[in-house]
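Re: duplicated header lines in exported structure tokens

Our pipeline writes sequence and tokens for each protein into one text file. With two proteins the header for the second block appears twice in some exports. Here is an export where it did not happen, for reference. First protein block:
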Amino acid sequence: MRVLLRTFGCRANQYDAEQVRALVEAAGGTVLDGSDVRSAAAEVAVLTSCAVTAEAEADLRQAVRRIARDRPDTRVIVTGCAASRSPAAIAALPGVTAVVPGADLAATAAALG
């Protein structure tokens, strides 16, 4: 499985994303650079969200919409603070297949399949 990882926000989110990276690699998957969500040929995108600033949430929404527009077959999983704060709003974004509040690694693994 090819998984794109993109992190928005603080060092805690970076740590959480590294945990997801380790999970994917341990399962034999490939982690793709998340700097350009449009260019990666990912089957799944895991976006670790931040809710500290409105700008971080806007960046997240923009990334989700970009993936839905440019890579409609890519499943999108949103984890992190924004997923905890606004799960229904995040789930309503186009292409989002799973919302994992906080840093629940087991739930992220289940969403990855």
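Second protein block, exported in the same file:
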Amino acid sequence: MSTSSPDKPTAEELVEHIAQVGRALWAASHLGSPAPVVAQLRDRMDHPQPGDLVMEFAPFTSGDFDPDSVGRLLAIERRPGWPTRYVIEPLLQPGEQRDGMDLSLIALPDQRSYARWADGS
């Protein structure tokens, strides 16, 4: 009996799955009155910090997925009177930098213990 294995996903497809799971986690953590650990996770996702795995997030997006919208947050630059500038290294382009002003970003838990990640441990 032969079994066929599904095609191996591309790197871009894997990054898109990460983004889909991140969006679902963000949405689920914003429903109702979550348990304290979920509220802590939600708050941490809403306030990305340099070093975090992040994704650009717009609640009502349409169109094609941009794999460069998921990456490592390298820097946040704030200057009075100017929009906040974010510098991101796309996950699939190590060493490259992408920046944008006033982006909507969410941090994605990238540690085995999301509770520890949320409280900064």
